[in-house]
Design a protein that fits this description.
The protein is an alpha+beta fold and 178 residues long. It has two domains: 10-76, Arc Repressor Mutant, subunit A (Orthogonal Bundle), CATH 1.10.10.10; 82-175, Gyrase A, domain 2 (2-Layer Sandwich), CATH 3.30.1360.40. Helices cover 42% and strands 19% of the residues. It contains seven helices and seven strands; from the N terminus they run αααββααββαββαβ. The protein has helices spanning 10-24, 30-39, 46-56, 72-76, 82-91, 112-121, 144-157, and strands at residues 59-63, 66-70, 95-99, 102-106, 129-132, 136-140, 168-172. A five-stranded mixed beta sheet has the order 5-6-4-3-7, with helices on one face. A hairpin with a 2-residue loop joins β3 (95-99) and β4. α5 (82-91) runs antiparallel to α6. The N and C termini lie far apart (66 Å).
Length: 178
């Protein structure tokens, strides 16, 4: 297959597939890229992937305890998943309450899972974990300092004036009326 019906040559198609892979999934090595491209029907070697990555300007960015490939545009934002979290929070108002070493995020019905996944994939790393229901999301912490750091950073993701609701509820959820 030298050229497909749309006039795109093999190299262009392969590089487009490579860009799709690194924007959709956290990929940390050229070996992973080779395997995924081969699964997609491209006959590639590590050297080919290395050249393509260099031509496309792909860079490695920190993601949790490892580094993953990212496009220059997504690397400029600090984390390729942070933009997704920001977009979600622009569209979905979130109220935050606190109970002990947990934060409870209340959102619109059906949105908690998407927000939890976006948090888990973002550069927010102080949480121990997230647990999502339909419209309620728990964010769990080990220490008070971790909770405070996370909350301060999370609030930078929320658009200013996006909601008439306070960013943090003025009471802990254990004190809320039943």
């Amino acid at each position: 297959m030298a050229v497909n019906g749309g006039g795109i040559n093999i190299k262009q198609a392969r590089q487009r597939a490579l860009l799709e892979l690194v924007t959709r999934s956290p990929i940390g090595s050229q070996e992973e890229l080779v395997e995924l491209l081969r699964e997609g029907g491209y006959e590639v070697t590590q050297a080919t992937v290395s050249r393509d990555a260099a031509e496309l300007g792909l860079v490695k960015v920190p993601r949790g305890d490892r580094h993953v490939y990212a496009t220059p545009e997504s690397a400029a934002t600090g984390n390729l998943y942070d933009a997704r979290l920001r977009r979600l929070l622009e569209d979905i108002p979130v109220r935050i309450g606190r109970s002990g070493m947990s934060l409870v995020l209340l959102a619109t019905p059906g949105s908690a899972g998407a927000i939890a996944q976006a948090i888990d994939q973002s550069s927010l790393q102080d949480q121990v974990g997230t647990l999502a229901g339909d419209n309620t999301l728990l964010v769990l912490f080990e220490t008070e300092a971790a909770l405070d750091r996370w909350l301060a950073l999370f609030q930078t993701y929320q658009p200013a004036g996006s909601s008439a609701l306070p960013a943090v509820l003025p009471y802990t959820l254990t004190e809320a009326p039943r």
